[in-house]
Amino acid sequence: MQNFDFYNPVKVLYGPGRTNEIGIEAAKIGKIALVVTYSDAPYLDPLIQRVKGLLEAAGVQAILHKAATANPQLCQAKSGVQLCRDHQVDLVIGVGGGSAMDLSKVIAAGALFPHDDIRKMIKFSHSHSLDIPLEKALPTLMLPTLPATGSEMNPTAVITDEVTHEKSYVWAPQCLFPQTAIIDPELLTTLPRYQMACGGVDIVSHILESYVNGSGEGMDVIDGMQEGVMKAVLANIVKAIECPEDTATRGMLQWASDIAINGWVTSGTYSFTPMHQMGHVLSARYNATHGATLSAMMIAWFRYFDQKQGNERYVKAARQIFGCTTPLEASQWMEKKFSDYGIQISIKQFGVKKEEIRSLAEDVQRISFSADNVLPCLPPLNVDDIEEIFALSYELGQ
Ligand SMILES: [Fe+2]
Prior knowledge:
Layout: E1 11-14, H1 22-27, E2 32-38, H2 45-57, E3 61-68, H3 74-87, E4 91-96, H4 98-110, E5 140-144, E6 156-161, E7 166-171, E8 180-183, H5 193-212, H6 220-242, H7 247-261, H8 274-286, H9 290-304, H10 312-320, H11 327-341, H12 357-368, H13 383-395
Parallel strand pairs: 1-8, 2-3, 2-4, 4-5, 5-8
Antiparallel strand pairs: 6-7
Helix pairs in contact: 3-4, 5-6, 5-7, 5-9, 6-7, 8-9, 8-12, 9-11, 9-13, 10-11, 12-13
The structure holds fe (ii) ion (FE2).
């Protein structure tokens, strides 16, 4: 195992109907809440009105910020920060999937950020990262409606600069952990099947990125936990897609999304996320759904590493997680399953043209490479390797 610090202070309330406690929980934190949710999600309107009523009944003023889109943008955060300042907001509540929750975190941090340009808190490049370090944020409360990012239980927020088309993140355990997360499986029944499928793949990707980058002695406990969670998620995605009313299964996947990325099953491994870094470029350029980009990347990565030196972890993953004998077979397994779920399996399906592949790789290089000009992972990859993986994905779209 690698050395690690483990810290996760999030208070979690799990169970059907526990949304009813949001007013009581919010009142413990603040008096004026900014409620951040999607700009265009009419199916969530009844929930938003319910949350507003519960907050006001508990004496918490609710100010709505219906601004989030898939791949939330800095401009949406800036308008939220302005609302916080105009109304002396002392609590930010995220209602929705990872996009709404991540946006709420950036707003919470932006409200106390000591600079007008909140872009300076986002890690858009290793070379000029964190011009002004993030030190404090307003407290947040999360009400997730989508099992995927586990944003309700981690200190990370992903955001896109709509001007430069760069998608990156801020990570700040010192101030971005939500104070409270209410996980209510009853909120998951309205989730459309495509989002449910993409969410399931995203959960697996968070653990798989860690698994294939694991190394060293003393990994049996971590490996076993990771394999167990990934296999359980993969075994239940179809049920979750086909049976929206099955709150036991959808709720279990919501909790799996938290376990995947709250530090429990990844402490002691490297925190590399190379497939995510490539997926972010696809989302930023083509507005591709996050989980779908991970579908395409996982399939291509396992093809790329099928015959490569240093692929022992990919061989182990193929055997232990997918029941296959080679990384290529595991790739084919994912290609068939993810396609059956209704998710894209190739970058060509996002609209990528062959002549754009090199510049995609160069975007990854510019945003996500380390100072020694490689994408951090085991083994490290250079820009030609990244181009080759994108090209492998492109070829799958025939
Ligand atoms: Fe993800």
